[in-house]
Every structure is written in C-alpha cells, then in structure tokens.
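Repro:
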Amino acid sequence: MTSPVVLRRAVAADAHAAAGVWLRSFDAALPTVVRPRSDDDVRAHIRDVVIPLRETWVAETTAVDGGGGEGAGGDEGSGGEGAGRGDRAGVIVGLMVLDGDHLSQLYLDPAWRGRGLGDRFVALAKERSPGGLSLWTFQVNKPAHRFYERHGFTAAEFTDGSGNEEREPDVRYEWRP
C-alpha cells in the first residue's frame, strides 16, 4: 500500500497553502503564544522568503483517505483551503524548512498529526543533514519536546525568549548521529 501523502520540495505555487498549514498548526499547538506577525505577514514571509530562499518541503495528499485523524504532534502546522481534508488529492498538509543543519520549521495540519508525517519529515531532515541537526521550540510546547526527544534530539539550551520574535521562553534541541 502506498502512502496517501508525498513529501516533495515546495514551489512558489505552494506558498498560500503552506502558510495556511503554518497558521492553523501554530494556533492549535501554541494557543498561549502571541504571534508578532499578522496572518498576511506570515503568508508574505513564506511566499517571499521561506520558499524561495530555504530548503522547504511540503507534505501533499495523493490519494483518497479518511482524513481527520486525531493526534498530538510536535512543532507541526496547517494549510490553505481544504487543508486537513483527506478526501481529495493535492492538499498541502505539512511543511518543513531546513536552513543548513538547522530544522527551522516543522508544522502539520492539526487533522494530520499522529499519522506519521512528522516522523517522515524528521527522517528526511536527518537524511539531508547527516552530520546533525539543531532546532528551537517553545518551552510551553511539551508535545514538541516529547516528539523530538523520541527522535533522538536532546535539549541543549533553555532561554528566556529574549532572542525570539514572540518573546516566549524557548529551548534549543540538537541531534547528533
């Protein structure tokens, strides 16, 4: 049986849907964290910076599936119209961004958490950066901590959040082979 989702490099046409995944995921996973950017600013940033300048990957549905599974994920996100629906192909349901050996973003549509997409993205990130990876996540995002620790990441640094846009305490994780 083939997977109903393919991981592929993002293209410019994916920007709106990928931003939707980011927005839905952030809101679902981090309801207490204040975003410093408006929805439109997030969409523009993904369109103008993330997709053209970073190694950006998306998870796209390829087959009819039941959709709407529940789950607890890590630092995972949301999408555009129809996101989270598994009843049609071509829907962006996940986003991962690599910047060298830094896993800068991993977001899954909330309806797609707990279905192995985050695991597949982390395996891909490790394949793309076999010498090791680092990432940041917020201290309040305990499901993300469990997710990354399950994948061999260890907490390397805790901060008060003064170095991030949200001013939210965070933790840097590292994975070394």
